[in-house]
Amino acid sequence: MYKITNVTLLGTEYTVADPAGKIIKTIQVITHTDILSAALGAYDESMGPVEQYMEKSIALLCGFENDSNPYNTMWYATQDEEVVLSDIIEHAIKNGYDRIILEHLDDFDE
User: What 8-state DSSP symbol labels residue 106?
Assistant: First the structure.
């Protein structure tokens, strides 16, 4: 019914180089909607309890088991319509992250 998706194939990989052109690092950037689309889609109450939705979604994603360090993923959530990706990538590299998940949060103040 559902296809299992390898998370390492989601998003876009960016190769970062220093001013001399030497490759510093390759970093994967994934939007949270990429992950939801690869799993069950956005949650709604017809899917049952949130716990059940999460368990089923996780079962449809693979690729995390190859991560030697579970702390190498940076989750960046913002309400801003636009983000400066280069700033986020720079911060991730300086702090040892290999993957960035970008999430746009709805503005609940409106």
Answer: P
Confidence band of 10 (pLDDT split at 50, 70, 90)? confident
- Locate tokens 């889609």: which residue? 41
List the domain range (segments joined by +) for residue 10. 5-104
Asked whether residue 109 is assigned to any structural domain, the reply reads no
Question: What is the Cα–Cα distance from 83 to 79, expressed in whole angstroms?
Answer: 10
Distance, CA of 105 to chain centre: 14
Q: pLDDT per residue over 60-84, tens digit each?
A: 877 766 665 667 889 999 998 889 9
Domain-located, residue 53: yes
Domain total for the chain? Answer: 1
Q: Are 78 and 105 in contact (CB under 8 A)?
A: yes
